[in-house]
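Submission checklist for the structure archive. All mandatory fields must be present; incomplete records are returned to the submitter.

[x] Identifier: DMT family transporter
[x] Organism: Actinomycetospora lemnae
[x] Residue count: 303
[x] Sequence attached
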Amino acid sequence: MAVVLVLLATIANATALVLQRKAAQDSARARGVSAGTLRDMVQRPAWLVGTAIFAVAVALQATALSIGSIALVQPVLVMELPFTLLLGWLVLGGALRRREWIAVAIMSIGLVVLLVTLQPSGGDALGAGTLVWILGTIVTLGLLGLTSSIAKRSRPVGRAAWYGIAAGIGSGFVAVIVKAMSEALIRDGGVGVLTTWQSYLLIPVAPAAFLTLQHALRAGRLLASQPGLILGNPLLSSIWGIGLLGEEINGGAALLGGLAGAVLMVVGVFLLSRSPLLAAQEGGPRDTSGAARNGTGTRRRPL
């Protein structure tokens, strides 16, 4: 059930991302990249609808985290990328080719291998201890600040890539906090959530993560930001879950299977993130097998 819920959350996340990306494109075309672009973007209907759908995705993910471990739930979020391409085809144009389908298959196989071999389970987010939470929070927020700072000082492609990593870190940490809140809710109801100090981390962290995501959307092309955005979340949250919150995974030979699954997932993500379809959906040049060529065999330049 946890996997089903998080799959629904990935579909909702992909829908929100496509709609917000459309708003960013419309804003950039209307105003150009300027200080007012973000303000203009958030006033557009596509962005508002995308934000509402994003809230639904958060609720689905929170429910999944309440019944499953972080290391089980968060890796499934990598499937957001193929869903983004599929939905982007409907909203932004383009079409999936054999290359994209092969990458989706690689990602899917990798995810299944990872989860079946490691079988993440257990853990106690509230039993980890205050010191573990404080040190983990300091390191995580330090990484978020560092990657955001590097992004601000980088060239366009590097800026998008680093903002993507920062957004992945932020969303992964939000998932960790939500996991603690869900455990408090199960144990003591609403009073437990209000009396659990980790709940109040969400007040500064959630807006920071959301704002970082918006910067990633408008900093450059998704081809640069998508790998960090997609992989940073499950990596950060799984490190928290297994390394700090006591979640258990199979050892021995199962670790090799988990590593193989993780490698397949990373390969699939990078293949999809560099898909010509993703470039086309962002208004970049299309690279299709049926592209027109001139008499010398080279591609015609667009007028």
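[x] Structure attached
Curator remark: Residues 6 and 61 are 5 Å apart (CA to CA). The chain is about 75% helix and 0% strand.
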